[in-house]
Structures are given as structure tokens and as C-alpha cells.
Design brief:
There is one protein chain. It contains ten helices and 70 strands. It is an alpha+beta fold. Among the domains are: about 240 residues, 7 Propeller (Methylamine Dehydrogenase, Chain H), CATH 2.130.10.10; about 100 residues, Immunoglobulins (Immunoglobulin-like), CATH 2.60.40; about 110 residues, no CATH class; about 150 residues, 2-Layer Sandwich (Heat Shock Protein 90), CATH 3.30.565. The strands form 17 sheets. It has a five-stranded mixed sheet with strand order 59-65-64-61-62, with no helix packed on it. It has a five-stranded mixed sheet with strand order 66-67-68-70-69. β27 and β28 form a beta hairpin.
């Protein structure tokens, strides 16, 4: 189908009465149109309807006594004007959608115009606006009653200027009820009892077919002008039957329709549709349609919302709308028409259909009645109970004779007579299931006894077998074979006296054959409950939902004249083109493309017990029986809807707040939930309107919501977006232009570019600071290592200066003295002995220095043992007694920390041994919450000046204080000449003990430092 461009669509919508707009199929009866009714009592909309119109944007508008209602085919929405604007009266009596897109609103007290979201009220124009009309120049005409101003009953608005017409302009009555076009710039005006053909300054008053004013008052009830220019008027005088008068070529012609007076009603409205058919609304009897003298009737019994009809309207797609006192109805074309009791079927039953040779259709109803449908008329062939019980199947042979299978036999209907077919013994054939005719015009009948072959009226032979007893559906091929479908899915083929079985068990199919159809090329088609089957020779293939069928539940099949296959199924009518079937046969795993006509197209599927359930008549139309009625589809004259539906975006809701889609939308920051409502204005089958949408800036591809009319988005990021929605009508014609909504989501302060730039700069700053901090840490760590090395060198320098270097210096002095002695041998010998002694002392002191460097780190982590060895070394003179004590359980500490403590202790022991002159030395090591070291001698003490400032050139006391500070200890020295010297060191256990309760603070720093050293 070709999609119309939007410009063409708008041109169709702009003037609903133009020739380019669509029309209803006039050959379809009113009862066969698709019909919908919306009742006020059901709460679909508020207020009693008075009038209806369509605007160029596609919306249907309904004027009620409580205001305006807008309808898009799916939703009725009460119209409310913008804030600060309102109608002059809530009672809306007339509407017209003009070519410029305006909606003109006639109320009980004045006229208003709604266009582009703005309402304009025409102040000073009083009275009830009874009718509105747009002429071919775009002027708006209105008829008024209940006038309180000085202006006339007929007014015109042209190019925004208001002009009213009264007596001076030859308007013949003070109140005008109706308006209609007359052509040649004339208007038809209807008063309470008069009819006038008028234009400003000229007026002709008409009393149709009356040479003088009749007794009593003739009431003109309605008027309408058709596309051919003729005018229809309805009038009634007293209790007489309403008259219809047709004005054409300057003359009136009277037509009396007695049905219009049903129930004593009168004509309330007239309407001429685009096919020039006259619709008549009555006050009590529903509506009538008149065409070429044929009168059709439709009222509340048929489904009309009320028998009181107020008006008609035809929209751009041809749908006819009816306003009644209780609601709104519409009538529209469908692809598949239905013949039921309303169209002449004898009962609410249709079990089988069969074409007749004269172009008609045989219909088997309720097992008892056979009717013939031809040229829209039904005739009955077999009324009431059958001659041999209920009819079980029907068949027409090549000669046009009708064969009827019954519960108890077979009869042929020929030239108005029934004749029974009997066996040689005079017995009937029994229950007949199906009948077919082969290429030699022999009939094959499957009955309860088996399979019979009949030539003329004579039974030729009978076949019976267990396989035949399980088959019920017969078909005949052009090549002379007859095929019987079995309940287990097999096919029996009878050809030239031979029988063969085409089995299906190897493919796992055991479903009963429901229907059979033979193609001219020898292909046999069949259906089961789940599939379409094709047999070519002995090869069978199955087409199922896996290959693209829209549903299972296949009832019957038939081919159209293009050899496309039509399947009558539980989901509707499925069409498969012949080239698709050929492609599927060559590639059985491929999916076929199908077309589905469903309930929205008028299909009402159902399964019957009798065959055939589907057939094709000589005119190419396809017929189906659904058990309740007969349905027909005409592939030759398929009427499609070419109008692509206008698409509108109706509303936007973001986080519970409503926005107008017509304003420039800027949504609040951090919008979580966004809902966009959209619609497409097609009223032929709104349930078959499908949508596609895409949010540019979010969606990568088009979304397929089907018929849903809302789009939902959550957590949209800040930015600009473009929402684009398109739609197709019931026949798949797409409006690809669709509707567009542009909007933006504002960023929160933390989503702005400046904030993001700030974050980038801040992160860069943090990274830079972290980098500088790390560089600083590495520099500090390196400097600490350098400091430690320097400290160690300083300590070594002190040790060497205080011991080894002094000894070496003394040795040098002895050597110098020996050299000065010259040849004095005795003095030389004494000097050498003293030099040897001093050199031995240097060796001992050097070893002691090395021992102090390595003893603690080369032994296991035991401070007490290291101090005990130091107290027992050669460092201690023989004249000094040493006592060592340890209290508490030893706790593990880092070797470096232990070394620092050991070196403090060692230096204290060495100083006492070398300088104190003490006779007793006490060493105490105490483990507890803290570690306490005490070294005390009873020697001569330390000079107070040296205690505070240290001995020049010596670094012992200074080194001990530095070591204690490095490990967080408290170091003190107490000395006097009377009591000797006491060295006291307290180191917090929480810092140095590895298993201490607290692991933070300085310990972490020390361990980190030690880890880096390691």
C-alpha cells in the first residue's frame, strides 16, 4: 500500500466534504458496517451530546450541554480552555471545523472560536447558535434564535469581520434554525415553518408542491444538500406521514417513506453522504438510509445508542457519525462483511457454504435449512426438517444439481425436485460426511458404510476398509485422483482403481485432517488443528507457527483467483501469497510473510462441524461459515483506507507535573519519570492503529509499542532531546512524518559543565598533591635513610674516636718516643713493649665496636641475652662486679628498635666500665606495660658540666639521647660523686611491642619506616 504524504492527508482533512475525502461503500448494508456506540450513561463522557465535527488536525469534537469533548478514537477528553478564558455558555449546540484549522463553537449564548490554543469569544453576538456552515470562500455562516440584539438571524464572519443580515437583506423570518448550501452563492434557510433560498438582497420562499398555503402549519423539520447539488427537505403537516422533498434543477419532487412514521416519530435530521445516499434521523425510530428507493432501518434493537437521532457527520475517512439523545455512534467500512438474520439469514446458524453455478451461494443453516444468496437476496430451498433428517453436507455437481447428505441418506435436488439415491437393495446410504466429483464427473461419497462411487444417479461401487472408516474429508484433483483425509493425519489416494496411503507418522503428525483442497498442479493442501499441510507426490511438508503463521487453530482453507491461500483460523483470516508458498516449499525452514484480517476488519471466526466451511464463488468473492453467520471477503474490490493518520502529541508528564507539548519544554533537573502521551487520528479501526517512536539522544533504534499510546522514560541525563512518533492506520498506511516534541532536561548544579570542569581540575589538583606528597614521602624516607646512615657513621666516629683512635694515637706517641730514644736499647725495648700492649688494646676495642654493631642483629631477637653477654664480655674490668636482672615476660619488638635499646645499654655499660672507677655495676631490664632499662654504678659520677653538654669531642651521652628520642623513649642520667651514675630509659610498650593492644600512632610510622628500610 502506498503511504500518502502529509500534505495530501491535510488536504483530505481540511474540507471533509470534498471529493478527495473517503466515503462508505454504498453496496454495504447499514447492518454490515462496523458499528460502535458510546453511551453517556456508561460514563464515557459528560453531558448529553448535541452536535459533532472534525478539525483539520484530525480530532473529533462533540458538543454537549456541559461543554466540549475531544475524541481521538481511543479516549474521550473533556476540553477545558486555558486559564482566564471560557465559553460564554457551556451548552454547545453547533460546531464546524473550518479549513484554516479553527473550531467554531455555537453555544446557547454566542459564538466562540478555538484556534492554536487560544479561545476567541465574539462579544455582542447574542442568541442561541443553531447552525454553523463554511462556504467555499472560507466564510463562516451561522443561524440564530432567541436573539436579543438588533442584528438579524443570519450572520457571516469573513476575514475576521462580523456581519449580520435581517429584514433589510430579505431574510424572511426572525429566527433561523438550519442552514445548507444551495450553490451559486445561495443558502437554504429553515425557519419554524418556512424554507427560503437566500443570498443577501434576494429571497425565495418555498412550500414544496403547494399552490397555496395549506390549512394548518407545515413544519420544516430538516434540510441537507448532497454532493450532486440537490437538496433534500423533510416536512410534516399535522399527523400526516413525514414527507421528503427533493429540490433539483429548480423543481421539487415529493417522496413518501411510510417507514419514517414508525412509532409516530418525525424527521429530526437529514444528511447526504459522499456517495449521495440520504440518511434520515427520526425522533423515535432510529435512523433510515434511502438509496434508489431501497430503505434500510437501524435502531436501538440493532445497537444504536438511542432511537432519538439528533444529527449526522461524515469524517475525512468516510466514517459516518450519528448523534443521539443518549450518546454517539459511528458506522464505518470493514474488509469482511457478515450476513446474519438482519440481512435475511433464516436463523443464527451457518454451518456450510458452497458456490452455485449461477454465481450464487448455497448456505446450510442449523442442519435443517438450505438457503441461496444471490444479488443480496435470500431464497430458501429446503425449509424446516430435512427429508431424511438433518442435512450433514451439501455439494453441487458440474451440471448444477445440488446434492444433500443427510443423517440417513443422500438426495439430489434437480429442477425443484428431490430424489433419493439408494443402494441396489433399496437401502439408503446412511450418514453422509462429504461429497466430491472427479475429473470424469463421477461423485464420490463418504458415508457411514465406506466410500461410494456414483455415476449419474447410480451407485457404481463401494469401497470399505479400516483406513477408509477413519477418513471424513474428500477432495478431487484435476488429474483424476480422489483423496481422503484421515483422523491420524494420513492421506488415502484413489487413482484408476488403485489405493495408496501417504503416511505422515514419520514426521510425528497425527492430527485429524480438517479440510482438503486440490491444486491444478496436483498439490494437495490440507489443514489440521495446528498446521497447513502440502503434499506433492509422497512428500509432505507442514507449515506452522514456527514458519510464520500468526496462530494455530486452522478451521478451513480456500484459494483466491491469484492462487493466494486463505486460512480461516481462530485469530482471523490469514493470507499467504503464492510466491511465499512456493518459496516455503523450496526452503521449508524459512518463515513466510502473511497478512492477517482480524476482528478489527470484521472477521468473527468460528469452527463448524460440517464441510465445506470456506469457498469461492464465480465472482471471486471468498465466503466463510462460522456457525452463526456467513462472512465474505472480496479480493477483487478490496476497499482500503489510503489516509495516513495525523499524529499528535497530547501531553507530557514529568515527575507528576503536567506540561503542554506546545510550549518550549525545559524539564527540571534530575527528572526521574517522563511520560509522553501521543495519538493518531484514525477512526475506521482505532485498535489497529500502530505506532513507532524514538527519542533521539536516548534511543538507538525505533521502539515498537504496538497500539500503546504512551512512552515512558526514566533517569534522563541532562541534555537536548527530540521525541519523534509515527503511526499507521488500519490498513498499514504510515504517516512517516508523524509528530515531534523537542525538549531539554536542565542539569543540576553538580551536572553542569562548570561543575564537571571544576571536578576535573579538583581531581587534577588532588592527583598533583598526592603526587607531590608521595614525592615528599619518598624524599623524607630517603633523607631518613641518609640520616640513619649519617647517625650510624657519627656513632662509629664516636666509638672509633673514644676507643680505637685514642689507642692508636697513644700508640703513635709511644712509637714517637721510641724513635726519640735513639740508640738507647733499653728505652727502645720498653717503648716497643708498651706499643705492643697498646696495639693489643686497639684490637680489643675494634672487636668490641664491631660486636656492638652486629651482635644484636646476628643473634635471635633476645635483648636480655644480648645485655647479659655484654655484661660478661672483656669490656668489664676484673675489679668490677656486675649483676643483671630481668623482670616480666619478654615481648617481641622490631630488631631495629631492640638494637637502639641495646646500643644505649651497651654505651652505658662501656662508659661505666671505662670511666666510673666503680666496683659494682647493676643492669636491670623490666618488661611490663612499658620497657624500662636501668644501668647503675657506684663510681665517681660525671661532672655536671659534662653531663649537660658532653665532653668536647665525645658523643656518647648525645648519641644515647638521640637514640632514645628516635624510638619515642624517655632518657635520663642521674649522677653524683657520692652515689655514682644511673642511666634510666623508659620506652612505651604500645609503640615498640609488636603484640601491644594499640597499633596506631608512632608504631605505625616506625613500622612503615622499618618496612621501607627492609
Amino acid at each position: 500500500m502506498r503511504t500518502l504524504p502529509l500534505v495530501a492527508v491535510l488536504s483530505l482533512l481540511a474540507v471533509p466534504g470534498t471529493r478527495t475525502a473517503q466515503a462508505l461503500d454504498p453496496a454495504t448494508r447499514i447492518t454490515q458496517y462496523a458499528h460502535s456506540a458510546w453511551n453517556v450513561a456508561d460514563g464515557t463522557f459528560a453531558g448529553s451530546p448535541n452536535t459533532i465535527a472534525q478539525t483539520t488536525d484530525g480530532y473529533i469534537w462533540i458538543g454537549t450541554n456541559l461543554g466540549l469533548v475531544r475524541f481521538d478514537g481511543a479516549r474521550f477528553v473533556q476540553w477545558n480552555p486555558p486559564a482566564g478564558e471560557r465559553l460564554q455558555d457551556s451548552r454547545v449546540f453547533s460546531l464546524v471545523g473550518s479549513e484554516d484549522g479553527s473550531l467554531w463553537i455555537g453555544t446557547g449564548y454566542g459564538l466562540s472560536r478555538w484556534k492554536d490554543g487560544h479561545l476567541t469569544n465574539y462579544a455582542g453576538l447574542s442568541g442561541r447558535i443553531e447552525a454553523l456552515l463554511e462556504d467555499n470562500r472560507g466564510s463562516i455562516w451561522l443561524a440564530r434564535t432567541q436573539i436579543v440584539d438588533e442584528m438579524g438571524p443570519i450572520c457571516r464572519i469573513r476575514e475576521g469581520q462580523l456581519a449580520c443580515f435581517g429584514d433589510a437583506d430579505r431574510v424572511p423570518f426572525p429566527n433561523a434554525l438550519q442552514l445548507a448550501r444551495s450553490g451559486d452563492d445561495y443558502l437554504w434557510l429553515v425557519g419554524y415553518s418556512e424554507l427560503s433560498r437566500w443570498k443577501p438582497g434576494t429571497s425565495e420562499i418555498y412550500f414544496p408542491n403547494r399552490t397555496h398555503r395549506p390549512e394548518g402549519i407545515a413544519l420544516f423539520q430538516a434540510i441537507a444538500t448532497g454532493p450532486d447539488g440537490s437538496t433534500w427537505a423533510a416536512m410534516k403537516q399535522g399527523t400526516a406521514v413525514p414527507e421528503l422533498q427533493r429540490f433539483s434543477a429548480g423543481h421539487w419532487t415529493e417522496q413518501r417513506i411510510p417507514q419514517l412514521a414508525m412509532g409516530g416519530s418525525h424527521v429530526s435530521s437529514l444528511f447526504v453522504d459522499r456517495e449521495n445516499e440520504l440518511w434520515v434521523g427520526t425522533s423515535l425510530s432510529g435512523l433510515f438510509r434511502i438509496r434508489d428507493g431501497r430503505v434500510e432501518h437501524y435502531d436501538r434493537i440493532d445497537g444504536l445508542s438511542s432511537n432519538s437521532v439528533l444529527g449526522f457527520y461524515q469524517d475525512a475517512e468516510g466514517t459516518v457519525w450519528v448523534v443521539t439523545s443518549a450518546g454517539i455512534d459511528n458506522f464505518r467500512d470493514v474488509h469482511v462483511l457478515t450476513w446474519s438474520m438482519r440481512e435475511g439469514l433464516s436463523s443464527e446458524s451457518a454451518e456450510s457454504v458452497l458456490p452455485s453455478h449461477d454465481g450464487g451461494l448455497w448456505i446450510l443453516n442449523d442442519y435443517n435449512t438450505v438457503q441461496k444468496l444471490k444479488n443480496g437476496q435470500f431464497t430458501t430451498v429446503l425449509p424446516g426438517p430435512g427429508l431424511a433428517g438433518h442435512v450433514s453436507t451439501i455439494f453441487e455437481d458440474h451440471a448444477g444439481r445440488l446434492w444433500l447428505g443427510f443423517e440417513h441418506g443422500l438426495e439430489v435436488y434437480d429442477h425443484g425436485d428431490f430424489r433419493a439415491i439408494l443402494r441396489e437393495n433399496g437401502a439408503p446410504l446412511g450418514l453422509v460426511f462429504s461429497i466430491t466429483e472427479d475429473a470424469e464427473h463421477h461423485l464420490w461419497v463418504r458415508d457411514s458404510a465406506g466410500l461410494d462411487e456414483i455415476a449419474g444417479d447410480h451407485l457404481m461401487k463401494q469401497l470399505a476398509s479400516p483406513a477408509i472408516s477413519t477418513g471424513y474429508i474428500l477432495t478431487a484433483s484435476a488429474d483424476g485422483s480422489v483423496d481422503l483425509g484421515l483422523v491420524d493425519g494420513d492421506l488415502l489416494e484413489f487413482r484408476n482403481g488403485d489405493v495408496r496411503t501417504i503416511a505422515s507418522h514419520e514426521s510425528g503428525n497425527t492430527s485429524q485432517i480438517r479440510d482438503l483442497l486440490a491444486d491444478p498442479d496436483g498439490t494437495i493442501w490440507g489443514t489440521t488443528v495446528n498446521e497447513l499441510i502440502a503434499w506433492k507426490g509422497s512428500t509432505r511438508q507442514n507449515l506452522t507457527t514456527d514458519n510464520g503463521l500468526p496462530c494455530d487453530g486452522i478451521f478451513a482453507l480456500v484459494e483466491d483467483e491469484s492462487r493466494a491461500m486463505w486460512l480461516y483460523s481462530r485469530c482471523g483470516l490469514i493470507r499467504i501469497a503464492r510466491d511465499e508458498l512456493d518459496r516455503w516449499w523450496s526452503h521449508p525452514n524459512d518463515r513466510v510473510r502473511t497478512t492477517l484480517l482480524d476482528e478489527g476488519d470484521g472477521v468473527h471466526p468460528g469452527l463448524t462441524s460440517l464441510k465445506p466451511q470456506a469457498t469461492r464463488t464465480a465472482d471471486g468473492r471468498l465466503w466463510f461459515a462460522n456457525g452463526r453467520a456467513v462472512q465474505m471477503f472480496d479480493p477483487r474490490h478490496e476497499r482500503t483506507n489510503p489516509i495516513a493518520p495525523p499524529v499528535q502529541i497530547e501531553g507530557v508528564m514529568a515527575d507528576g507535573r503536567n506540561y503542554s507539548p506546545h510550549q518550549l519544554l525545559r524539564l527540571a533537573p534530575v527528572t526521574r519519570d517522563l511520560e509522553i502521551e501521543y495519538t493518531a487520528l484514525s477512526f475506521v479501526a482505532p485498535q489497529k492503529v500502530f505506532f513507532r517512536y524514538r527519542l533521539e539522544g536516548r534511543d538507538v533504534r525505533w521502539q515498537e509499542p504496538g497500539g500503546r499510546r504512551e512512552a515512558f522514560y526514566t533517569d534522563l541525563t541532562p541534555g537536548k532531546y527530540r521525541f519523534h512518533v509515527v503511526a499507521c492506520n488500519n490498513d498499514g498506511v504510515w504517516n512517516d512524518r508523524g509528530a515531534v516534541l523537542n525538549f531539554s532536561v536542565d542539569p543540576a548544579w553538580y551536572q553542569t559543565v562548570w561543575f564537571r570542569l571544576f571536578c576535573v581540575l579538583f581531581i587534577a589538583l588532588i592527583i598533583g598533591m598526592l603526587y607531590r606528597l608521595r614525592v615528599h614521602q619518598l624524599a623524607v624516607a630517603m633523607n631518613q635513610r641518609f640520616d640513619e646512615r649519617l647517625d650510624e657513621r657519627t656513632r662509629l666516629a664516636r666509638d672509633l674516636h673514644d676507643t680505637l683512635l685514642q689507642t692508636i694515637q697513644a700508640s703513635k706517641m709511644v712509637a714517637d718516643d721510641a724513635l726519640d730514644a735513639g740508640a738507647n736499647g733499653a728505652r727502645m725495648e720498653g717503648a716497643l713493649k708498651k706499643l705492643s700492649m697498646w696495639m693489643g688494646q686497639a684490637v680489643v676495642e675494634g672487636r668490641a665496636a664491631l660486636q656492638s654493631l652486629r651482635s644484636s642483629t646476628t643473634e635471635r631477637n633476645d635483648l636480655a641475652e644480648a645485655l647479659r653477654r655484654a655484661a660478661q664480655s672483656d669490656l668489664i674490668p676484673a675489679s668490677m662486679s656486675v649483676s643483671f636482672s630481668m623482670t616480666g615476660a619478654a615481648s617481641e619488638m622490631h630488631p631495629i628498635v631492640r638494637d637502639e635499646i641495646y646500643r644505649i645499654a651497651y654505651e652505658s655499660i662501656r662508659n661505666a666500665a671505662k670511666h666510673s672507677g666503680a666496683s659494682r655495676l647493676e643492669i636491670e631490664l623490666r618488661y611490663g606495660q612499658d620497657l624500662i632499662l636501668r644501668v647503675q654504678d657506684n663510681g665517681i659520677g660525671i661532672d655536671p658540666l659534662m653531663l649537660n653538654t658532653g665532653k668536647p669531642g665525645h658523643f656518647g651521652l648525645q648519641g644515647m639521647r638521640e637514640r632514645a628520642a628516635r624510638i619515642g623513649g624517655r632518657f635520663s642520667v642521674v649522677s653524683s660523686a657520692a652515689s655514682g651514675t644511673e642511666v634510666h630509659l623508659v620506652v612505651p610498650g604500645g609503640i615498640i611491642f609488636r603484640k601491644a593492644p594499640s597499633r596506631g600512632g608512632l608504631l605505625s610510622k616506625v613500622r612503615g619506616l622499618f618496612a621501607r628500610k627492609s
